[in-house]
Amino acid sequence: VDWAALKADLKELVSTCGCAPILVRLSWHDSGTYQASDGSGGSRGAQRFPDGESQHAANAGLDVARGILQPYKERHPQVGYADLWALAAVTAIEWAGGPVIPYRAGRTDIRTAASCVAEGRLPDGDRGAKHIRTIFYRMGFTDPEIVALSGAHTLGKCRADRSGFEGPWTETPLRFDTRYFELLLECEWEPSEASTGLPQMACPSEPELMMLNTDVALITDPTFRQTTELYAKDAARFHADFSTAFVKLQEHGHPSLVDVGV
Ligand code: HEM
Q1: Is the CB of 149 under 6 A from ligand 1?
Q2: Coiled-coil annotation: which residues (predicted)?
Q3: Can you give the residue ranges of every domain in the chain?
Q4: Which atom of ligand 1 approaches the CA of 20 most closely?
Q5: Distance (Å, rounded) from C-alpha 31 to C-alpha 53?
Q6: Tens digit of pLDDT for each residue in 37-94?
Q7: CATH class entry, domain 129-244
Q8: What is the pLDDT of residues 176-234, one digit of tens each?
Q9: Residue 138 contacts by C-beta under 8 Å, 6 or more apart in sequence?
Q10: Which of 3, 27, 99, 216 could form a disulfide with 239 if both were Cys (CB 3.0 to 4.6 A apart)?
Q11: Given the CA of residue 32, which atom of ligand 1 is nearest to it?
């Protein structure tokens, strides 16, 4: 793989496509199936088959991201899907003003859909703190790491025809900043509904914005709240902690990755 050329191609892509958020979501859903107890799941390009993980409800809409990246797989055929999707995500975060996240390559893609994990490993947005902990502890994350990773919702939005939830988290969905944490603390979040009938949270003073129940758990749970307050005030700390946690997310299950100079 000509990693420098691939990285340059992806930089060009993210600066023109407006697709940075969904590229981050693709990498997170590829790697967020990991289970530390048996090493199953993790970033393995598992959504590229027509059946298996691509059909899981949590992955609705990610065909868009996979389609955007397919031409880059064709232009750089030696790159694995999991490595490609992971590199696209860190490139997107950097373009959006987030941290420059260290990247290493060498993830092994699964070969057939039969190696996909069963549905149910990714979080549901209408749940609470207990559910979030169950999902993220399974991967080996701590409470502060859960808050840091959730800060990715500074990017992007929910769509009624994908997840069934609706709206952006912040006024600047293409900026990786601390607005998500500030808004969590500034607003009086109250129960609301998407047009699909799914429950979500609304802020009377910011009617265009939304939070998921799982986002609001980061202020109602006292332990999560401490970290939310820290990140709302300290962008450098958020960026540093997000970077560390995102590397862990992208790399878990792959003990022998290598630096490829990008
Ligand atoms: C409790 C944990 C989480 C839940 C319940 C959750 C749920 C969701 C939902 C429902 C959407 C909307 C999808 C759509 O309608 O297109 C979404 C989008 C997104 N999520 Fe999460 N998420 C969680 C954690 C994370 C983490 C850990 C990351 C990355 C580190 C992340 C990154 C994103 C991004 C960037 C988007 C925007 C995608 C776009 O605009 O197309 N999320 N998430």
Answers
A1: yes
A2: none
A3: 3-121+245-259, 129-244
A4: 35
A5: 12
A6: 999 999 999 999 999 999 999 999 999 999 999 999 999 999 999 999 999 999 999 9
A7: mainly alpha
A8: 999 999 999 999 999 999 999 999 999 999 999 999 999 999 999 999 999 999 999 99
A9: 34, 35, 36, 37, 121
A10: 99
A11: 27
